[in-house]
Amino acid sequence: MPVVPSAKRTRTAISEDIKQQICVYATKPENKNKTQQQVADYFNQQNPGLHIDRSTISKILGKKAKWLALVSTSASKKTFCHREVKYLQVEKALGLWVENANANNLPVSEIMIKEKAFYFAQEFNIQRENILFSNGWIEKFKRRNNIRCYRLHGEANSAPLETLFEERRKLQTILQDYTLDNIFNADETGLFFRMAPNQTLASAPTPGTKLDKTRITVLLATNAIGTQKLKPLVIGSSKNPRCLHRVNRNSLPCTYHANSKAWMRNDIFGEWLEYMNNKFRAQNRKILLLIDNASSHFNPDEHNNQVTEHTNDSLNLSHVRVHFLPPNTTAHLQPMDAGIIKSFKAIYKQHYIRHIIHQFEANVDLKSNKINVKEAMEYVAQAWDSVKVETIVNCWQKTGILPNNSDDDNGIQQALIAQEMANQEDQGGVELLLQQFSSLENISDESLGEINQYLEMIDLTIPTEQPLTDAEIIQLILEEENENPEINDDDKEEHLVISMQEGFNSLKTWVQYFEEQESEEFDMKEIKIFRKYMGVMHRKLFESKTQKNITSFFIPDNM
Asked: Which domain does 197 fall in, by range?
């Protein structure tokens, strides 16, 4: 599946001046060992509006001689002058602090922002006499961090449960302007994607860093009739885990983001909204997105109403309308919470048990060959793809928010019964696999109990965002700065790079196996795609060998 496309912003154009700066930076002696991804990360950090990826850096450096020879025009400097963000640590910490204040329904003034900026500066050992947080700096900070777009959720907006009938009627009125295929709901869920290292069928899990590293946040979204389940978004704790080293991230079944807490953040949510808008604009569809009022979910309409012509921060959501569900009602009105996520997790459990069974049957040591983030994303995508259309439809009907819902509770009650039966079916699949696992040789009751304990952990409601103390904010910033940008996580093994010849041989074997199958599950029409890539690889192998022979032909005899 394609990776989330880069959103088009008004400031993503890269001027000749910035291209020159990139080339100058990359050719400095102290930066020669930096990777292209590190260069991209540096310029993105210094100017969040750029959003440069590694491939763009590669193209720019490919024309390094040209850009270094150019003298930037004054107009280019005026429009796209690259200025480093002063006090980057302070700005990152301050952005998290504002987000936390929003999560706790605390009002934030410019005076408070300035005072907190001085506090974080002191904590990062920046002398007060060396800094000046002027009103201009505050305004730029607010624009760079979309401070105005944070949605405050006060108690006045909370909907008591006795008003559920009224809230349903309001939602039905809003939703009636859209066809069911263009009404979407999205929600995050926390997931312990594997057993903790200290729990690998040996002991119970204990809270702490090791357990945190097994947690990811998964964002799922689907329309009201289950015909369009969007590509899952996964947030891990490592930006460059070993399992993704050398992997083309366009090939991943999930969109991957990371921060040290593996939490949803305002910037990630904003990028996802832009991806949604680009996707449906290309399809010429206008959709309604229902979401809860989590602090990381900001209202783009409120933001855009306050954007000036100088900020260039507008999200320009031309094809996505965001509507927030009333606070304190999501357990009753949000379809994802009505059983869709529960079904997804039950199916993920099945994939995990199959993984464990395969490891045991292959005599693989579970501790040294634990499931990694890449495998987890594959299971996440497969589980999400396996959630039944009937389950999705039932869960939307359960909420009673769709325009076609009857005024009485009969339709809702029928959906409740249908969904309960679906839940039992999902759980039955888990129990069947557990029976298969328990029948394996050398499986003790203790081991079976531990895997059951892990499966129960999957069902836990795990925070996907959480307010931080000032000390935790500082620690978080320092951890992210000290993170190895190349490869980091607790996976011990590198991702093995498969040679073209190895890939060709494996594909050839697979095609032969495919041709020998008589099961209806193997659609012989689909074998064409494998033969197509066999042809592509065969041609590339031929070109590679031909080029090698031509190169050898020109080697002098005396060498």
From this structure: 155-458
Asked if residue 428 is part of any domain, the answer here is: yes
How far is residue 132's CA from residue 355's CA, in Å, rounded to a whole number?
Answer: 56
* Dist CA 528 CA 541 (whole Å): 20
Rounded to whole angstroms, how far apart are CA atoms 463 and 472? 16
Q: Are residues 224 and 331 in the same domain?
A: yes
Q: Give the span between the Cα atoms of 39 and 58, in whole angstroms.
A: 10
Cβ neighbourhood burial of 57 (10 Å; 0-12, 13-18, 19+): buried
Q: What is the CATH number of the domain that holds 322?
A: 3.30.420.10
Whole-number average pLDDT of the chain: 75
Asked if residue 91 belongs to a domain, the reply is no
pLDDT of residue 8: 41
CA 132/CA 126 separation, integer angstroms: 11
Which residue is listed with tokens 């990028």?
Answer: 271
Q: Which residues, in sequence order, are CB contacts of 470 under 8 Å at separation 6+? A: 97, 119, 120, 123
Q: Which residues contact 431 (CB under 8 A, 6 or more apart)?
A: none
Can you tell me the mean pLDDT for 196-223? 61
Contact 353, 184 (CB under 8 A): no
Strands 215-223 and 320-324: unpaired
318 CB burial (10 A radius; 0-12, 13-18, 19+): exposed
In this structure, the strands spanning 215-223 and 287-291 are unpaired
The predicted pLDDT at position 306 comes to 44
Question: Which of 211-215, 523-527, 533-537 has the weakest average pLDDT?
Answer: 211-215
For 192, list phi and psi in degrees, rounded to 5: -80, 100
User: How far from 497 is each of 243, 244, 252, 303, 485, CA to CA, in Å?
Assistant: 11, 11, 16, 45, 20
Q: What is the torsional sign of CA 174, 187, 354, 499?
A: positive
**pLDDT beyond 60 at 4:** no
pLDDT in tens, 221-232: 999 999 999 999
Asked if residues 366 and 356 have their Cβ atoms less than 8 Å apart, the reply is yes
Domain endpoint, select from 50, 65, 80:
80
The domain total for the chain is 3
Note the pTM of the prediction, 2 decimals.
0.64
Residues 262 and 368 occupy one common structural domain: yes
Tokens in use for 106? 């605390």
- One domain for residues 222 and 305: yes
Residue 487: DSSP 8-state: -
On whether both 394 and 505 belong to a single domain, the answer is: no
- Element (DSSP H or E) covering residue 245: none
**How many other β-carbons are positioned within 10 Å of the β-carbon of residue 141?**
23
